[in-house]
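Journal club side-thread
Mid-discussion, someone asked how the predicted structure for our own chain would compare to the paper's figures. Pasting it here so we can look after the session.
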Amino acid sequence: MSSPEFIKKRKEESALVLTIDNPPVNVLNLKLLDELVSEVKHGSEDPSVRGIVITGAGNNAFCAGADLKMMSSFQPEDVERSVRTGQEAFASIEQCSKPVIASINGLALGGGNELAMSCDLRFASDRARFGQTEVLVGLIPAWGGTQRMSRLIGRAKAKELIFSGQIINAQEALRIGLVNKVVPDGEEVRAGVDYVRMLAAKASPIAVSQAKMAINKGLDEASVHEGMKHELEGLKVVAASDDLKEGIVAFLEKRPPKYSGK
C-alpha cells in the first residue's frame, strides 16, 4: 500500500499519531479526508494501538478548514459530494472503536474545528484558536459542526459562535467545554500520547470501547432510559471478556491488571 500524501503517521508506544500535513495551514481536501479515514481505520484494527492522536504539521494550524480553492470550482453536484464525504469521514472518526484525541496546535477553524469535535477528546495548545467561520464566506458548517457543537457546549452558545463566525482562544474554549484541557504550546501531542499511555496501563480496551459506544449511541436517543439500553449491550460484551476476569482478580490481588483486549 502506498504512503498517504497528506498524512504522516508514527507510533509512540500504544498511541498512533496522525499528523495532517498540507502546508501552510493544513486545509482539508477530499483526498486528505479519504487518507485520514483510512489511517484511522488501520489504527482501529491494530491490536497494539490503544488510542489515536490527530494533530497538524507546523506551528500555524491544526487545520484551518476546507480547501476553499477546491470549493471555488465546484458545481452544485460537487457540493453535495463534498458534504457527504466530510460528514462520513468525521462520523467514521467519531465511531472508531478506540479513543481518538485531537491535539490542537494553532488554528482550528471551520472544518478543522469540526474535525476536532468529531474526536473523543480535545487537548489544546495555549496558543490554539477555534471558530466555526463558515458564515463569513457565505457557508454554514456542514461537516457536523451544527450538530456536534450544540451537543458539546449547548444550543445557545453554539448559535452565538456559528452565527457570528467568532474566533475564540484556548482558554475560552476550555471555559465553555469545547476542549478538555489546555497545555503549554508544544506539549499538546505529548498530552494526547500520555493519555493513551495511561489508558494502556490501567484500562480494559474492551471496556473503553463499549463505554464509548454506549455514550455515543445514547446521545442519539430521545431519553436516558432508551440510552441505557446501550449500556446493557456494552455490559454484556464486557461480562463475557477475559479482561473483566483479569480486572477483578488483579484488584483482589492488589496488583496492576494485565489486559489482553479479549
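Post-session note: The mean pLDDT is 92.
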